[in-house]
Amino acid sequence: MLFETEFNYHDEECAPQCWVLFKGDKILTLENxxxxxxxxxxxxxxxxxxxxxxYLGRLNDRSYYVGELAADKAAPxxxxxxxxxxxxxxxPDDLFSLAGKAYHLLHWDRTHxxxxxxxxxxxxxxxxxxxxxxxxxxxxxxxxxxxxIVAIIKDNQILLAQGRQFRGYFYIAYITIS
Length: 178
Description:
CATH topology of the largest domain: Nucleoside Triphosphate Pyrophosphohydrolase
Protein name: NAD(+) diphosphatase
Shape: globular
CATH superfamily of the largest domain: Nucleoside Triphosphate Pyrophosphohydrolase
Organism: Metallumcola ferriviriculae
Domain Zinc ribbon NADH pyrophosphatase: 110-139
Mean pLDDT: 83
InterPro entries: NADH_PPase-like_N, NUDIX_hydrolase-like_dom_sf, Znr_NADH_PPase
Pfam family, one: Zn_ribbon_NUD
Number of domains: 2
Order of helices and strands: EEEEHEEEHEEEEE
Low-confidence stretches: none
Number of helices: 2
Helix content: 10-25%
């Protein structure tokens, strides 16, 4: 089933909740399971409380949130923090995609707490994923950064290279121009 982004922010609790947690730019994983999504029960058990949270949407009838942990919060036993890219190919694609979306929205939320026009604290817009300034009405949306994939073909061959940091079958295209 596909992840369903929901644009309205709920005042009431949406149960059951699932969490993707970050500390700075690192994603929380459970050491023994390698999982990146925690339930409310696991969150309570680990005594983790996000200092910032954003509603993501729904997947398989579960509500998903992204949370940010305090920078000075020590990792509980059995918890590791990884660079998100390190998990590429290590977790299922749908969860990696969800984690990427979670990081994107968390970063946007963190960097748009105040209006860029007048400096007043922003609020979540209730009918779409956006921040609105209650004073001047300026609306800010999460950044969209399009990318392209290019195949470099010469004599019916494609130029590929394997990055040292990636294990498995992940290749990057490159060309040296002299």
